[in-house]
Amino acid sequence: MKVKGVAYRTIWVNGDGWSVGIIDQTKLPHAFVTTNLTSWEEAAHAIKAMIVRGAPLIGATGAYGLALAMRADPSDAMLEKAHTVINETRPTAINLKWALDRVRNALHNQPTSSRAAIAYQVAAEIADDDVATCSSIGDHGLKIIDALYEKAGRKRTINILTHCNAGWLATVDWGTAIAPIYKAHDAGIPVHVWVDETRPRNQGASLTAWELNSHGVPHTVIVDNAGGHLMQHGSVDMCIVGTDRTTREGDVCNKIGTYLKALAAHDNGVPFYVALPHSTIDWTIRDGVKEIPIEERAQEEVTVMSGRTSDGEIVPVTITPEGSKAANFGFDVTPARLVTGLITERGVCAASEAGLTKLYPEFA
């Protein structure tokens, strides 16, 4: 995608051929800052501190982290150490383990002299695959939006609600849930996006809104609890969100608060779609509520907010009484029964084992 006319991916290898460039997402929306990763430890920190975030992107970052590790020390011991430490940074999103395993498997039985080059090659393949995958997700999701536009007589704007950030900042490019919106907008379909703020880190207000604004897509930021009200009053045509892990039977794990949006959509007859790449499907588990590990993050993310003052200074502000504790669950699970359909790079399917294995027969 483009920032002020310049095309960017969210992760890339620099001109020196080995250091890795990323966008520091903790600085958005007030500043667009890029930084470099020069060690696997820096890659692990970037993932854990959410300098990079979004399931597909942290997978690609993890892959490049192993490449950096192999450049420094291509031994088996370093490979296992870097794999373990990076994998533990974010426990919920399955893409991270998927990407790390793909690199590690490619390095097994390879001479140490070749490992760095192979790791960089596999990481690049993961990144390129994600771009193509997300573009295809956008194409399949576009058909759903176009059908809604056709149903509306091609006479009015299609209103879409999303939660958290599943745009190009969460992937290598295009995004998952936002890719169909970009494709629809670019095709001339009038779309408007209700952007949940997504407390406590405000990925919707800070990142999704910034993306949509940069691309010229009409949108309105709303507080997290406004979605049900909008659905009751017919102001939402469809919901579309991403997912950090999808079970074999179609349960989806996404940013905390997604489950409540799905319940509201179900109660009001609003289609609720989830967009995901193949790397987000965990074929080894069935029950998302029981089996997906839910990340718990620091309470300071809830008790402290940062923002820009009238004189342009970025400052942190404590919003809770001194001594009040906060719980900070990063994700929740939406059962498959509440999901209208899964939008993948291979097409749209029912949120079920039968639906997923029809698209991915190799896992049947």
From TrEMBL:
Among its keywords, does the record have Isomerase? yes
Reply yes or no: does the keyword Isomerase apply: yes
List this protein's GO terms for biological process. L-methionine salvage from methylthioadenosine
Provide the site residues for: Transition state stabilizer: C164
What SUPFAM superfamilies does the entry give?
NagB/RpiA/CoA transferase-like
The EC class name is isomerase
Name its pathway: Amino-acid biosynthesis; L-methionine biosynthesis via salvage pathway; L-methionine from S-methyl-5-thio-alpha-D-ribose 1-phosphate: step 1/6
Q: Any idea which GO molecular function terms this record carries?
A: S-methyl-5-thioribose-1-phosphate isomerase activity
* Pfam name, any one: IF-2B
Question: What is the catalytic activity of this protein?
Answer: 5-deoxy-alpha-D-ribose 1-phosphate = 5-deoxy-D-ribulose 1-phosphate; 5-(methylsulfanyl)-alpha-D-ribose 1-phosphate = 5-(methylsulfanyl)-D-ribulose 1-phosphate
Its function?
Catalyzes the interconversion of methylthioribose-1-phosphate (MTR-1-P) into methylthioribulose-1-phosphate (MTRu-1-P). Also catalyzes the interconversion of 5-deoxyribose 1-phosphate and 5-deoxyribulose 1-phosphate. Part of a bifunctional DHAP-shunt salvage pathway for SAM by-products.
PANTHER family in the record: METHYLTHIORIBOSE-1-PHOSPHATE ISOMERASE (PTHR43475)
**What is the protein's name according to its record?**
Methylthioribose-1-phosphate isomerase
UniProt gene name:
mtnA
